[in-house]
Specification:
Shape: globular
Radius of gyration: 20 Å
Distance between the termini: 35 Å
Largest sheet: none
Number of helices: 14
Amino acid sequence: MLVVFFSLCLGRVTIPFATVVKILFSSILPLEPDWSATTYSVVVDVRLPRILAGLMVGAALSISGASFQGVFQNPLVSPHILGVASGAGFGAGLAILLFDNLVLVHLVSFAFGLVSVGMTYALSRVYKTTPILMLVLSGIVVGSLFSALTSFLKYIADPMNKMPAIVFWLLGSLNHVSFKDILITTPIFIVCIATLLMVRWQINLLAMGEEDAKSLGVNTEILKTLIIVSATIATASAVCISGIIGWIGIMIPHIGRLIVGPDHKYLLPISMLIGAAYLVAVDTIARTALATEIPIGILTAIFGAPVFAFLLRKTQKAG
């Protein structure tokens, strides 16, 4: 909560903490305004939507990453493993190239994110089952395909207008998020995250291995499908409003394991909370560090790589 309030205070215009609190509570309490209309607009119309979006996107990517790592029994798996980021990136690039409408960019991005995962899942089916290895390999194939198509879009795009817009979107940003985007995506985030939280006990069984889970009476195919679909839709929703933001889904679950251990009963909630706070903090740095806004994807990579390396060394020393 403190991260949210301090984020509302910081920016091109620094607003006192007390003023921010008054503005937020002015809609429910009869407070006498002692702030200007510009200050109110900066807090409510500019900063609040992107902070709320940062909370949702950070939570979605983190809990999806922790869920995927449990299902795939691999701590290096990210929410983008099934090609959702590459598919959503191609969809956004295509919409930017063909249309000049931000809503269509979000919708087409979301649609292609789901299409890419559908292709991955269809490609990985073997005798009515979906082996983990086949899912990973299929995700690599589909992701590579959409990455190549995105590169082609950048090649044919107008270098003065369209190509910079595509590149900036692919680097990740919350700059264009509005309350309309939040109202559309919030129900999706809530359903997907609630589903993952409800089955987090069973992710522990999948993390033990499919054979062990089956011996305990778990229908692994249904459980895997439920987790993968929920995590994928949450990731696609995040990508469609923020662009491609890497490292969060890999790094944050590792930090969560250092705090609560590997039990997914506790790992998923703590990862969600840490991821939400982390992305809001990074977004605050992105919009305040320089005169021009830094794409979030660049900062998450700069911060994520050394932190992840430190976590790996710490884990290695601990045996």
